[in-house]
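Form 12-C: Joint structure prediction
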Amino acid sequence: MNTKHIAAAVLFAGSLVITACGGGEETRKVPEGVKMPENAPSAEGGAAAGLITAADITLGEIDNAMVEKGKTTYDVKCQACHSTSENRVVGPGWKGITQRRKPEWIMNMMLNIDVMLESDPEAQKGLEQCLVRMPNQNLSKEEGRQVLEFMRTL
Amino acid sequence: MMKRPLLMTGALMGAAGAVFLLVNTMPGCKPNTTKTVVTGDAASKVYVKPGTHDEFYNFVSGGFSGQLGIYGLPSGRLLREVPVFSVDPESGYGYSEESKGMLMTSAGFIPWDDSHHPELSQTNAVPDGRWCFINGNNTPRVALIDLGTFRTHSIIEIPNSAGNHSSPFSTPNTEYVVAGTRFSVPMGDDAQRDVPISSYKENFKGTVSFIKPDTSGRMSIAFQIVTPGVNFDLARTGKGVSDGWFFFSCYNTEQAYSLLEVNASQRDKDFIMAVNWKKAEQLVKEGKGKRVPGKHYSNWWNDRTHSAESTVYEDVLQIDPKEYPGIVYFMPCPKSPHGCDVNPSGEYIVGSGKLAALIPVFSFKKIQDAIAKNELEGEFAGIPVLKYESVLHGEVKKPGLGPLHTEFDANGNAYTSFFVSSEIVKWNVEKLEVVDRVPTYYSIGHLCVPGGNSAKPWGKYVIAYNKITKDRYLPTGPELTQSAQLYSIEGDKMELLLDFPTTGEPHYAQACPADLVKPREVKFFKIDENQHPYVAKGEKETKVERKGNEVHIWMTTIRSHFAPDNIEGVKLGDEVYFHVTNLEQDWDVPHGFAMKGAANAELLIMPGETQTLKWVPTKVGVQPFYCTDFCSALHQEMQGYIRVSPANSNIPLKGETKSVDAGS
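Section 2 - Result
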């Protein structure tokens, strides 16, 4: 986090009313495009790959086979911190998450967490509330997409 | 080699003054102070900017720590100490249930050893960055460290050996690494081994073993060559023109068994033993040799089950060179040789007689000619001894006192360490002429040039691994840090650049470019591939079960909580096994696990790994456990409680994590 972000975070935290961990706000600004700051983590952080955009994701009818695979990944790699209700454990609960967040934002949080925490104001807002950096669980793009499909059923 | 016994050799005893005196009075050694030998730009040559990497990895023996030290060069920064032969409470190595098997031997669980000589695996006689071997000198063992994980991946015990010093040097494609026994001993069944010590000449034998690592790093002993009773010291493979041969230095050809300091220093010459290992290998393929008693363990770390697997062998295949002429020859070498080093082309073999005042250089071509023409001095215990003059390329005259060990650059130069005169001497191998010398502080043992034992040395530096530290650092009581010194060899003159401390006695070291190793690094273990019998792949698989008086807890960790973190129903008399799986799947996120009152160490569990801590409670009450490795802003909250009730209690066994509003 660079100094500009820290300053912004302190100011923001002072006036923020926390309801739930990043998941429960009605109004929010979705970033149009996320820019990498100059001191963003290198490839070593696992985040050098380009961010996922809306064009990369096609949502159709719920694909039950994908949901099943997404649930399996969730049980091993996500469930310790995220419930399937609205309630926060370590990170936000997932019920209704796909109504609150755009699919590409969710995918980037799963697959490109270091870049998001470095540059995305909404991700940073979540960190201010949860205070635990979301782990990079090194999901493949395919696994991330399957988890997204599972989220759509919640 | 050992520090204090050698200090006692010669007329000068190992007091500080004596060491200074030696440095200052040696012929060819001008009095030097640190100020006169360090030039103005030395600092810039070893400066590695914050956030940038060193150019070389340096793999340094941990000596009597039993471990392997990993340093960066040219900075001399300590990067890691890899636990090998000694237990390591920091990582739980040797304390976790899974890792105890790595230290199993035919004598049981051995939690310590004396590690001496790192040796990098090779392809075409050049280090390839896959593995680093190191020998355990005390309870004879060889370990293989995987340079993808920087962990001890396998350890093999050497039967019919007593002190594995002459080890673990590699053949040019790591077909084998060798293990020559330092001490000869009687072998065979109980009656054959229960003999008077004074029957040394009659009953004591030596062995050199050829150890084969398979592609997974699991090691086995392909064959052993049994030799007359002598002490083996060091060894090097032939390569290039001498590929297929191996050379071992040996001392105590007097066959003394008491007061070796005097009794093993009588003869003008001892031997370098030349072994035609390809011929021995061929004999083995033909079914020659015989299996003899020799119980030994081969332990291997399984990266999928995250556990040690031990294989026990009852015997070993031995070849007696007296029955198969042409495998083994002795070459006379002055005097009690330590180093036995082969130049990059493979043509020259340099003996470093630690009590000699010259360096003999043998020629491989002449050795072959002498064998063909049968130019022998005689026999030693049934093994032919080649004529010294017939196999000698030449001698470096009066190079210094106490030559120990030699490595090479790519320009035809050799660098030999001199323990007694405390210096490094650079000399031309072909011309046998000294071209430069620098003092070391103090009493150098081995030295290392990156790739300096190989067919293609990278050169650039020579590093001195010293036996005496004295006044070089801030004093720390009677026990001081061990130390190394980095010299540039890029110019005509060697130039001292840096002192850096090491842990344990730095017997020997090797170095290779970091680029050979860095691409191999494993960043975490994939949880999907975890086959540990007690893995919990997600919190849904966590549970607590009783099996008699054993309580097994399938536990998970993730930033920043344990599941379960409230455990009740444990009773006095139970043995509690915490099987902890780290659910993280990112680099550099280990979690620690420590249990109050555990007569044990902590666990340090890498991402995707499962490790087990055994705890036997000794009193009734509620006790905490916690994460020892700072993992997040809520690390201090990463804790749990376990309740222990009296032996006759009826509290049901359960484990849970209570979220305030966990939803589903």
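Section 3 - Comments
The radius of gyration of chain B is 27 Å. Chain B is about 10% helix and 45% strand.
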